[in-house]
Amino acid sequence: MADSPPTSSSLARYVAHLLTDDPPRAKSLCVSLLGDALACHGGAIWLGSIIELLEPLGINERLLRTSVFRLVAQGWLQAERHGRRSLYQLSDQGLRHTEHASQRIYVGPAADWNGEWTLVALPRLGNSGLAERTELRRELDWEGFGMIAPGLFAHPRADAHTAHDILEKLGIADKALVLSGRDQAGPAGLPIASLAPQCWNLDELAGQYRHFSQQFGPLEALLDGALEPADAFAARMLLLHTWRRIVLHDPQLPVPMLPEQWPGHAARQLCGRLYWKLFDASERHLDAVAGRDNERYTPLAPSVYSRFGGRPDAGPERRGAAATP
């Protein structure tokens, strides 16, 4: 006999509680939907299906339509008219953004580190370079670089391609230096890693991870029985959306550089456990809504099974199906 419905209604009530405490923003929630649920199914969806999937998370139709139009204007989505209906497809740019974010969301910081740093140096350009310097700092900060001296940014993991892409985007590729190297501080010197608390706001980040665990920890006890697919999908979206907002601002420093008992580790393990407990039921709802009358909705990409260290009940052929999460 199947488990009784109260488990599902308890899940719905808890999701409603989370939504009241911290309601998501429409556009950001759309990006979470595209990246987590749709990219691995071909990336195409009817506008009506977006509305049906996300309205239960407290976003009304008007805000969802506006958010989708903005994502088209920003190059994330491409729109196609089919009579009175609109089909939206992740663009090449949207797919690149999604793939780039996947490492932070589903994989996390490296367990080891070879000691190499990527450095970006922006020489003084006079007063005319102030705006460029400010914009560069904003972009590098988003990618996890820390400013270790005026005009000098460092990251222990980001590769040079990331830095070059940012400089190209800002039109200042010929005004900055991109370097790689090893710390040569010596026994009595000042290693770059010792500047981590000043260069990266780890205290604030640690607080966000602790809050995440407090928010979603009680959810685990509600997921042992049968789940209503719509409730499971809403919980998965809210879980992933909240997680994404934290980890995309995490510099992803290698584990050896992080403080002992780093709360991000426990938060990531919790997120992975919840994600996989919700996954099957949530996929049934996604298939029913996003796959309805949608020839471009494709079977789930096998690479999904590598997320959060691999699905617990998946065989090794699924967990290692692809390098891209």
From TrEMBL:
Domain Transcriptional repressor PaaX-like central Cas2-like: 111-184
Domain Transcriptional repressor PaaX-like N-terminal: 25-94
Any Gene Ontology biological process: DNA-templated transcription
InterPro entries: PaaX-like_central, PaaX-like_N, PaaX_C, PaaX_trns_reg, WH-like_DNA-bd_sf
A Pfam family assignment: PaaX
All copies of domain Transcriptional repressor PaaX-like C-terminal, residue ranges: 200-287
Protein name, per record: Phenylacetic acid degradation operon negative regulatory protein PaaX
